[in-house]
UniProtKB/TrEMBL annotation:
<keyword id="KW-0547">Nucleotide-binding</keyword>
<dbReference type="GO" id="GO:0005829">
    <property type="term" value="C:cytosol"/>
</dbReference>
<dbReference type="InterPro" id="IPR004007">
    <property type="entry name" value="DhaL_dom"/>
</dbReference>
<dbReference type="Pfam" id="PF02734">
    <property type="entry name" value="Dak2"/>
</dbReference>
<keyword id="KW-0418">Kinase</keyword>
<feature type="domain" description="DhaK">
    <location>
        <begin position="7"/>
        <end position="323"/>
    </location>
</feature>
<dbReference type="GO" id="GO:0019563">
    <property type="term" value="P:glycerol catabolic process"/>
</dbReference>
<dbReference type="InterPro" id="IPR004006">
    <property type="entry name" value="DhaK_dom"/>
</dbReference>
<dbReference type="GO" id="GO:0005524">
    <property type="term" value="F:ATP binding"/>
</dbReference>
<protein>
    <submittedName>
        <fullName>Dihydroxyacetone kinase</fullName>
    </submittedName>
</protein>
<dbReference type="InterPro" id="IPR036117">
    <property type="entry name" value="DhaL_dom_sf"/>
</dbReference>
<dbReference type="Pfam" id="PF02733">
    <property type="entry name" value="Dak1"/>
</dbReference>
<keyword id="KW-0067">ATP-binding</keyword>
<dbReference type="GO" id="GO:0004371">
    <property type="term" value="F:glycerone kinase activity"/>
</dbReference>
<feature type="domain" description="DhaL">
    <location>
        <begin position="352"/>
        <end position="539"/>
    </location>
</feature>
<dbReference type="InterPro" id="IPR050861">
    <property type="entry name" value="Dihydroxyacetone_Kinase"/>
</dbReference>
<keyword id="KW-0808">Transferase</keyword>
């Protein structure tokens, strides 16, 4: 897999320099590249308890992204997925520790424990007050003698950081950190492992499966399970989190492990808040990439049982660039649509034959979803099938509210439904098509002429003409053929759709941005949908 890096041996120092230069002067670093890689607050005056954390790189924005007023004083960065050296940790401690002392926050990995632990001993020998807490929040593998430290570490950074900023002494910060560790539970799930730059990727998670409880360095989890969507993933994760968890108010940290999209993370958050545990969650941090595993396509959920003072410390403003803040969970007050957008619908009326006809048409589009998406992926953004199928499902759901016995009103009602439920330009164009057909029908035109009037209006507004490589290339001949028979219409629609595969220039839609080689030989998905619809009607 390709990466946007320069030399592999310089990627950590390059990343640190980029973070510091983009900080607006809030961050600096110690000398000693490449062996000493320590990011420090620029404004630090050693008047309060210092907080130092760190570990292997590859978890960005952790740990340097959490250096700033109200959180970490310094972050010690190792190579990718490798603990920093004892000297690097010691350098960080000596650079920031003052009379108030220094708290080390360490994730529970052998290298981190040893190197941070030895550095603490050496710093004490220099006369510094140093305490250390070990974070072991991962509940994925309960039989491990030492649980791993993962994204729950950020709760420790935030609460202890707020206390230190407010002037708490080292003992109070340490006790609070230890309590937060004991009250935090984390587990992750991923659809794929991560890719370490310069190394071969381990493809151990089969397609259609997800791994539950894998570590932030790609370590194997507790089991591989079937991947059945966001709600199912959250159900499997919360089952592990709920075991022994008190039913008291909690804050959730929703963490992107690096490769999940923002869209997926919002869906996962919604599923989490709708789960059985959702009623216990009072606040949420994220969703955001907070402690990643390079490009791992997964997420983790951390839950902290709230104690007195935690909400105040978690909500306290910080100057660390990567902390997204904490928000209270609240059901929104849904605002009504503005005047003019709430549609005035014709009264519903039943007509079994019309209902059967429409449901059959919608079913054709739903069953064609994957094929049309595949076609659109060759000349567009791969969503034509999903867009049409989504609108078809919505139309089926609304069927009993439509004026099925009045075709003039039915055209208009379908146009209104599509304008609200069908995305993209296709939804707008088809809404125009049916609205205009309704207007034509109300003036007394028969169905074939009304549909043709709808097509003319759609072309006038949308600007598509025959040969432009759109659905129009199939729809025009289909409606012309309808004057003879449904069979003629289906034959004409298929011929028009196939013709689009010979067109190497599109003059409308996203395909107009695609080069000729990508278009040649591929049928336009909108035209294909029209052809399949008429072929079904003619069968």
């Amino acid at each position: 897999m390709q990466h946007f890096i320069n030399q592999k041996e310089n990627m950590v120092t390059d990343a640190i320099d980029g973070t510091i230069k983009a900080s607006g002067g809030k961050l600096t670093r110690l000398d000693g590249y490449p062996h000493i890689r320590v990011v420090v607050r620029s404004d630090w005056d050693k008047s309060k308890v210092a907080l130092v954390s760190g570990g292997g790189s590859g978890h960005e924005p952790s740990h340097a992204g959490f250096v700033g007023k109200g959180m970490l004083t310094a972050a010690v960065c190792g190579d990718v997925f490798a603990s920093p050296s004892v000297d690097a940790v010691l350098a960080g401690i000596l650079a920031v520790a003052g009379p108030a002392g220094c708290l080390l926050i360490v994730k529970n990995y052998t290298g981190d424990r040893l190197n941070f632990g030895l550095a603490a001993e050496r710093a004490r020998a220099f006369g510094h007050k140093v305490s250390m807490v070990i974070v072991d929040d991962d509940v994925a593998l309960p039989d491990l003698p030492q649980a791993r430290g993962v994204a729950g570490t950020l709760f420790v950074h935030k609460i202890a950081g707020a206390m230190a900023e407010n002037g708490a002494n080292l003992e109070a910060c340490t006790l609070a950190a230890e309590r937060v560790v004991k009250s935090t539970r984390t587990i992750g799930m991923s659809l794929d492992t991560c890719t370490v730059p310069g190394s071969l990727k381990e493809d151990r998670i089969p397609h259609g499966m997800a791994e539950l409880g894998l570590g932030i360095h790609g370590e194997a989890g507790v089991e591989q399970v079937a991947s059945n969507g966001a709600a199912d993933a959250i159900a499997k994760v919360t089952e592990k989190l709920a075991d022994g968890m008190p039913r008291t108010p909690h804050v959730a940290l929703v963490n992107n492990l690096g490769g999940a999209s923002c869209l997926e993370m919002s869906i996962l958050t919604n599923s989490l808040l709708a789960s059985e545990l959702g009623s216990n969650i009072r606040h949420v941090v994220g969703p955001d990439a907070l402690m990643t595993a390079l490009d791992m396509h997964g997420f983790s959920i951390s839950l902290l049982e709230l104690a007195e003072g935690d909400e105040k410390h978690l909500a306290q403003p910080v100057e660390a660039s990567a902390w997204p803040g904490m928000n209270e969970i609240a059901e929104p007050d849904v605002l009504p649509l503005p005047d003019g957008l709430s549609p005035i619908r014709a009264p519903a009326s039943a007509h079994d034959a019309t209902k059967e006809f429409l449901v059959a048409c919608c079913t054709v589009l739903i069953e064609s979803e994957a094929d049309l998406n595949a076609l659109d992926a060759k000349s567009g953004d791969g969503d034509t099938g999903s867009t049409l199928a989504s609108a078809a499902r919505a139309l089926i759901d609304a069927m009993d509210s439509l004026p099925l016995a009045d075709h003039t009103q039915l055209y208009r009602a379908i146009g209104l439904e599509l304008s609200q439920t069908m995305g993209g330009s296709s939804g707008v164009l088809l809404a125009i098509f049916f609205a205009a057909a309704g207007d034509a029908s109300s003036s007394g035109l028969p169905m074939k002429d009304a549909l043709r009037a709808g097509l003319d209006r759609m072309r006038e507004i949308g600007g598509a003409n025959p040969g432009d490589r759109t659905m129009v290339d199939a729809l025009i001949p289909a409606l012309d053929g309808l004057k003879t028979s449904m069979s003629s219409a289906a034959t004409a629609a298929r011929k028009g759709a196939n013709y689009t595969a010979t067109l190497t220039t599109a003059k409308a839609g996203r395909a107009s941005y695609i080069n000729a080689d990508q278009l040649d030989g591929h049928v336009d998905p909108g035209a294909e949908a029209v052809a399949r619809l008429f072929e079904h009607l003619a069968a």
